[in-house]
Design brief:
homodimer; 10 helices
């Protein structure tokens, strides 16, 4: 029987996403990840190094999936609105990503893959600044805060779902409420991106 | 020596805020709270019942402190903006509150004190609806989503501080950056509350 190296790596990464999203970095045991993947713990160490290296890889992979799935398609306010709606959809369908980011926040300390992520965000901020319109440069919201706010508006529902339910009176699984929330996120993104009037 | 009952309760509650904010409900041990307060574990049980009752009390008390400190003072867009700015200040100065809400979200299950909080939020949504202006009722953002978004914009900085630093390029302790963030939150709240134009 040949070793299915790629398949084993994939199974370990999938198991790591589930375990890390459930329990965070500190409380998750490498044994639990290996057991979930049905793989020997030593092979996990061989493939990925230590737990911290695996955490960094998981976070990079999950953020990479979001970045591939949701792109700013053009340079206008409608494009920013649609980007925000698609980000909302992505987080609703992949709740593990908001959980990983929450764990990172609760744990404190330096972020995983700080250099690559900072470059990624710098590029993103620059593209959103262009989409806001260069002629509005003095009256617009700063594009870095805009980008940060769009992530908040897309991910906050997953972050505090009980608060969302108490305030809106509906569960996020309710189809009508999910559509209403998405509509709000798109409209909010348009309002935040618009050049100031008056 | 007389028993200082109020003082002991206070010390236990203060210790519980610190321990629960650091570790969440599940990982926090009642022993650690009692030890931090310098009080016998049995007295903690006598005063508060079990760990869940203490968690509920801590969350209610911390949310109550926010509600007392930050009020919607009038019925206009400037008032909503100022409310959002004051909420941002409160979260910046009391990072434990966002942490408690995060733990609640990560832990899942029904929220603490659901009935009282739902009533509180229903009342808040009604007041924000009035502040948005009743004549804009068809074109405005739904006031429940507005309230939810204002909490997101005020608390998201504390929730994912590393993300905030990577995107803005500055630490939240930096005085200039904190003022810039506050200014953004006020402006964002105004934009989200305004009646739609055009």
């Amino acid at each position: 029987m040949a070793w299915d190296t790629e398949g084993t790596r994939r199974r370990l990464l999938d198991a790591a996403v589930i375990e890390f999203a459930a329990g965070g970095f500190a409380a998750t045991k490498v044994e639990a990840i290996a057991a979930r993947a049905g793989v020997n713990k030593e092979r996990l160490y061989n493939y990925f190094g230590d737990k911290k290296a695996l955490w960094d890889l998981v976070l990079a992979a999950e953020l990479g999936r979001l970045a591939s799935a949701v792109r700013l398609s053009g340079a206008g306010l409608d494009d920013i609105g649609e980007f925000a709606g698609a980000t909302f959809d992505y987080h609703a369908e992949h709740p593990q990503l908001a959980r990983l980011l929450q764990w990172e926040g609760l744990q404190g300390g330096p972020p995983a893959n700080a250099a690559e992520r900072s470059i990624h965000y710098r590029d993103k901020v620059a593209r959103f600044g262009i989409a806001q319109g260069e002629d509005a440069i003095d009256s617009r919201i700063d594009p870095d805060h805009l980008v940060f706010a769009l992530i908040a508006l897309a991910a906050w529902w997953q972050t505090v779902p009980q608060l969302a339910e108490m305030i809106t009176g509906a569960d996020g699984q309710d189809i009508d409420e999910r559509a209403r929330r998405r509509g709000f996120v798109v409209e909010a993104a348009r309002r935040l991106s618009a050049p100031t009037k008056g």
